Amino acid sequence: MKTKLWPAAGLSLLLAANGAHAEAIRAGTFALGAERITGIFHADETVDPAPSQGYTDFALFGNNTERTIAGAWQLPRIGFDVFVTNGLSLGGSFVVLNQSKPDATDIIFAPRVGYAYMFGRVVGIWPRGGLSYWHASGADDYEAHSFAFDVDVPLLFACTHSFAITLGPLLDVGFAGKQNNADTSFVQFGLSAGIVGFL
User: Fold this and answer.
1) Residue 6, Ramachandran bin (φ over 0: left; ψ between -120 and 50: alpha; else beta)
2) Would you state the pLDDT for residue 133?
3) Which residues, including other chains, have CB under 8 Å from residue 22's CB and lie 6 or more apart?
4) Which of 172, 198, 165 has its CA nearest to residue 186?
5) Distance (Å, rounded) from C-alpha 82 to C-alpha 96?
6) Contact at 8 Å (CB) between 54 and 112?
7) Does the pLDDT of residue 40 top 60, yes or no?
8) Cross-strand pairs, 73
9) How far apart are the C-alpha atoms of 91 and 48, rounded to whole Å?
10) Over 70: is that where the pLDDT of 18 sits?
């Protein structure tokens, strides 16, 4: 019974030891990140009139090359955010990926709003949510696009004052999608990791 308390006790001690320095990230801070570098993702995807299909992927640096709708949301992306007030961030992320084999281009643009709070010098949290858009084109007149509501809730693990590792859950809900002439939608959740620098 006692061994089950060790993880909770360890986290409590970590937060308590840094509690005197708890604060929201200050206004005027600029964040530049590499997001969804790696992660595990589960998606349920529908391409009408076919039935829904579910699959789970482990992605590292966007190694998922399948032409799936939800798979585009597993691609690594660059994030830009500015803190307009203490804790409150406005920004977004994007990716442009061009492949030669198969010939394809993916573009994702994802504006968002978030709130970051450091529990101490080491651990913080930065929930963010927004609306994203994906467009893809390729050989044989392939074309697809989709919108999605996105929620990321990464924990921040500060390595230095201006650099942190991010790790946390995510949820993407795709809607109003098209793949050639077929309607598409998806729900994807998972756990992803990345890095971020604060300037």
Assistant:
1) alpha
2) 97
3) 117, 118, 119, 120
4) 172
5) 21
6) no
7) yes
8) none
9) 33
10) no
Whether omega for the bond prior to residue 127 falls within 30 degrees of 0, making it cis, is no
Contact residues for 91 (Cβ-Cβ < 8 A; gap 6+): 31, 79, 80, 81, 82, 111, 112, 114
| Cα separation, 136 vs 68, whole angstroms | 11
Name the band, by pLDDT with cuts 50, 70 and 90, for residue 50.
confident
- Would you call the peptide bond into 49 cis, given omega within 30 degrees of 0 as the criterion? yes
Residues 6+ apart with CB under 8 A from 106: 72, 75, 95, 96, 97, 134, 135, 136
pLDDT category at 117 given cuts 50, 70, 90 is very high
What mean pLDDT do residues 40-65 have? 87
C-beta separation of 109 from 91 below 8 A: no
The CA–CA distances, whole Å, from 65 to 38, 184, 189 equal: 14, 18, 18
Please compute the mean of the pLDDT values over residues 115-121 and round it to a whole number.
93
pLDDT higher than 60, residue 21:
no
